[in-house]
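Help needed: design a sequence for this.
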């Protein structure tokens, strides 16, 4: 893709994302709703055909605040990868925040914004976590850039154009400002009905992943 056309497209995408980030700070609990289409008998060639019931479930949305530098967040990510207990019940919106004064944390958070804009969150999340906690191959801008490009499937020009994009920078600032709405001291933390649910204690003391996730679901339901 021509780089100028790409930048124009990127600006349009970010312009659509920014209002959603602001709105996420005030996200409200949404009850699961089920919608059905009526069963309608139709005649065709003397045979009756019926429309099947179409069930649409709107999941409750919760926000997860995490950091790529947080060991508990890495464990929580791995839990969710292998068990769908939480993901099956809720739509999780993930925001990276910086609770420590670290250049790598800022770089990781900025790369997460880029991943959201490019729509490659699921491609880069595991490699970034592993590069920091498992293989220890990510420790600065260049090493994270290398991993991001490889797993996102983009070239260096696209990465640098996204990094330098003014709207991406604004989105990064706005996402970090959302943190001011909540008193968050531990990660990962969930926002449910505008209330902070600190799950760090469960992750610190629970040994079996499925039990951990079930306990987290119980905490969320009690809010």
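Sure. Designed sequence:
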């Amino acid at each position: 893709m021509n780089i100028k056309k790409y930048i124009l497209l990127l600006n349009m995408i970010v312009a659509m994302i920014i209002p959603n980030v602001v709105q996420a700070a005030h996200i409200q609990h949404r009850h699961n709703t089920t919608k059905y289409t009526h069963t309608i008998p139709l005649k065709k060639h003397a045979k009756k055909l019926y429309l099947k019931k179409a069930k649409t479930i709107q999941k409750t949305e919760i926000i997860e605040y995490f950091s790529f530098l947080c060991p508990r967040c890495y464990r929580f990510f791995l839990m969710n990868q292998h068990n769908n207990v939480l993901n099956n019940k809720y739509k999780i919106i993930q925001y990276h925040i910086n609770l420590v004064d670290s250049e790598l944390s800022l770089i990781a958070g900025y790369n997460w914004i880029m991943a959201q804009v490019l729509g490659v969150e699921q491609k880069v999340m595991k490699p970034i976590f592993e590069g920091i906690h498992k293989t220890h191959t990510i420790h600065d801008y260049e090493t994270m850039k290398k991993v991001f490009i490889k797993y996102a499937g983009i070239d260096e020009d696209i990465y640098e154009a996204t990094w330098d994009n003014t709207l991406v920078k604004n989105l990064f600032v706005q996402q970090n400002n959302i943190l001011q709405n909540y008193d968050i001291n531990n990660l990962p933390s969930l926002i449910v009905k505008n209330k902070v649910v600190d799950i760090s204690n469960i992750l610190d003391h629970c040994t079996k992943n499925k039990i951990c996730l079930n306990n987290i679901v119980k905490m969320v339901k009690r809010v």
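The radius of gyration is 21 Å.
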